[in-house]
User: What shape does this take?
Amino acid sequence: MTEVVLDVSELRAWYGTEGDPVRAVDGVSFEIRAGETLGLVGESGCGKSTLGRSILGLLPEGSATSGEIRYRDRNLLAIAPKEVRSLRGPDLGLIFQEPMTRLDPLVTIERHFMETLKTHEPDMSEREKRTQSLEALAAMGIPPTRFKQYPHEFSGGMRQRIMIALALVLNPKVLVADEPTTALDVIVEGQILGILADLRRNFDTALLLITHNLGIVAEACDRVAVMYAGRIVEQGGARTVFAEPAHPYTRALLDSIISLGTTDLRYIPGAPPSLIDPPPACRFHPRCPNAMAVCASKFPIETRVADGHRTECWLHGPDDEIPPGGDRPLERGEIAIAEEA
Assistant: This one.
């Protein structure tokens, strides 16, 4: 077994508002080993991007965090912000979801790369910086003739590839990729997944891949974590979870996938809950077809389904924690009463 590079334990992240705080991440735990890819999936608004940015200390003012994010035995939440900043680049990398908002429109692509390398590799010569930058861009299919151009001179897909090259130019030990293939066609998507695989293979990079595309997870990830309303409700080996999903939410996500054999469109009724005031107990129970009485009254306990496969769902017990009568199906009317309470 390779070493654990990133160990997240009981992480909570919330945003301040004029009323109650938004609990975007609410007690999340997972680990990633060197050379391993963990896919993080779930609907929009479930806290995936907040989780990714929490790891790099990039949450905005007015936010707060608690728990532990251990990078090689250092708790990133307990060290000074200046130390966290020094780790970004050579140790911790992030591929942003929205490239146009992350590239300075007044600065050339060349300057983006040169300033990044100057900050983290001050002893590197100008020639070495240029060579390393052009190699990173070439890996993304960007020719050297475009090195001195500005962000607005590129298409959305090419800007995304530039963002990925910026994240990879320093070969980080941990890389958080937030929807790295957004706005890219399937050919370029395949190329980028191949590059990320090479990064893992050649540099033992630990990769957290945030995506809505379950096909990418099945193809590129060793393990998968399913996130709903700020919680990870299921995690395990990607093949195991996809073949035998334990949580009803995971099953619903997989049933929603369209394939060549699809004859009926399936979807999950309703929408993810407000993270200011989420449902009591199991947060998925208002939308769950398998909801029981206990689901609306008692928070589920994480249960081991199989080796390395865990879920937060009362369908898997523990049975001795379910009160008498708690295993009866929950009626729709009871769900409304439970939410009001």
In short: The domain at 4-228 is CATH 3.40.50.300 (Rossmann fold). Residues 303 and 317 are 7 Å apart (CA to CA). Residues 337-341 have pLDDT under 50 and may be disordered. The radius of gyration is 21 Å.
